[in-house]
Amino acid sequence: MLISNPRAIHFAYPDTLRTILNVESADQSRVWLSGWELISQQATPLWELTEAASQLGIARLCVKDESFRSPLGSFKALGAPIALMRLVMRLWHAHDIEPQALIEGRYAEMLANLTVISATDGNHGKALAAAAQSIGCHCVIVLHANVSAEREQAIAAYGARIVRIAGNYDESVAHAATLAKNNGWHVVSDTSYDGYEAIPRDVMQGYGTIAAEIIEQSTDAPAFTHVFLQGGVGGLAAGVASYLWERGGAQRPRFIVVEPRQADCLYQSAIAGHAARATGSVDSVMAGLACGETSPLAWKILEQCIDDFMLIDDDDAVDAMRHLAKGAGDDAPLVAGESGAAGFAGLCALMRNDEFARAAGLDRNARVLVINTEGATAPAAYAQFVGESAQAVAARQQAWKQSCVR
Ligand SMILES: Cc1ncc(COP(=O)(O)O)c(C=O)c1O
Fold first, then answer.
1. 345-374 per-position pLDDT tens digit
2. Ligand 1 pocket, 232 CB below 6 A?
3. Which of 115, 129, 195, 332 has an alpha carbon within 20 to 30 A of 64's alpha carbon?
């Protein structure tokens, strides 16, 4: 359930990868998106979980909390909107489009005949629907059979037309591509495929904001030794790891990718040595990570920088949600959704097994960062898993904050 990647290197960020993802373009995306009303104007919190670190037997544990990124509920608010903006700029390149005016909807008349489409397991589609609504174009979202009605409603609330198919996530990706071809629509997908790379690259590049903030928020402390990253198609991991690698160079942290056991496409890619498919059913409570096929573009980054790939069970994720919601000892209670809690779940799973912990170099000196990639994006499912509503946990978090001020 943990394998090390023999292709991972600890040199300076290679120029070949800089042509795909780089700090300069990530920072530009950050500036462009900062004017969007659905993005928080402040950096998302970097929580220090002292008690959890001590219970796990490591020196330090921090959680970068993307549940605060946007009312959309996840880090995905950084990806689709910037890719949509860059798409419009490419399509109307003669117009010298002003990014702030674009996201405020001041080009809506010009965009009235533009339709964008994507498959999604929830968060990406919601972010694309919201961005399309903001700039004033049409949006069609293709959902596979296992996307819950709760997630569907959340996407439809942003004005997207929903197309529901009977198949799985990968089939929904293929269906979106066919609909786009037949109707002259534009696919804005977070995963790449043959001949389709510009947009998923822009999506991944948007996620670099998370890494930029992490660096700004941790200048006073010794750098992290380990960073846990959830894996769906690989975009989040590529966007965050590439930024931290380019900035950290040969001193970059050790990156560990965590996936659901049934949706192990990145783990299988590490074994095969190329972008590969998952071996399991792909269905998981970790809806955002339930992806059967690796994004080949993301893999170009991941194959050189992810040191370890690991798998967790659905129960591990649910336990992690509860643990974070409770808040050990004096630690803050955190609202982490099913996929959001997966990085922390991966850390806990490794620390329960001496052999794996040793293999990953996790000991009393380890300074670990995990990313809570979503809040309660499916609130009813959250309440059922945690035994408490997300609002109640958030209220306890508020009380915790006030007790710290006193
Ligand atoms: C909450 C959450 N975390 C992590 C991921 C994984 O991101 P990626 O598919 O880019 O690897 C997703 C993907 O949808 C997600 O929704």
1. 999 999 999 999 999 999 999 999 999 999
2. yes
3. 129
Query: Which atom in ligand 1 lies closest to the alpha carbon of residue 74?
Result: 1
Domain 2-75+204-405 and domain 80-189 have a common topology: yes
Kindly state the tokens that stand for 299: 């893999």
**Residue 250: is its pLDDT beyond 80?**
yes
Distance 96 CA to ligand 1 centre (A): 32
Distance 95 CA to ligand 1 centre (A): 33
What pLDDT was estimated at residue 74? 98
Query: Hey, what amino acid is at 150?
Result: E
Per-residue confidence (pLDDT) for residue 221, from 0 to 100: 83
State the pLDDT confidence band at 5, using cuts at 50, 70 and 90: very high
Question: How many Å lie between the centroid of ligand 1 and the Cα of residue 343?
Answer: 11
At 375, give phi and psi (nearest 5°): -90, -145
Residue 326 falls in the annotated catalytic set: no
Fold for the domain defined by 2-75+204-405: Rossmann fold (3.40.50)
Please, what is the Cα angle at 43 between 318 and 58, to 5 degrees?
Answer: 50
Kindly state if the Cβ of 339 falls inside 6 Å of ligand 1: yes
Say if residue 225's pLDDT is above 90: yes
Known catalytic membership, residue 316: no
Domain coordinates in residue numbering, the chain: 2-75+204-405, 80-189
Residue 239 has pLDDT above 90, yes or no: yes
| Ligand 1 atom 6 nearest Cα | 232
Distance CA 36, CA 32 (A): 8
For residue 67 and ligand 1, the question of a CB distance below 6 A is answered with: no
Nearest to 378 by CA among 324, 337, 335, 339: 337
Q: Are 6 and 312 in contact (CB under 8 A)?
A: no
Is domain 80-189 annotated with CATH 3.40.50.1100?
A: yes
Encode pLDDT of 123-142 as tens digits: 999 999 999 999 999 999 99
Confidence at 405, pLDDT banded by 50, 70, 90: confident
Rounded distance from Cα 404 to ligand 1 centre (Å): 32
Q: 232, 164, 236, 168: which is closest to 207 by C-alpha?
A: 236
pLDDT tier for residue 146 given thresholds of 50, 70 and 90: confident
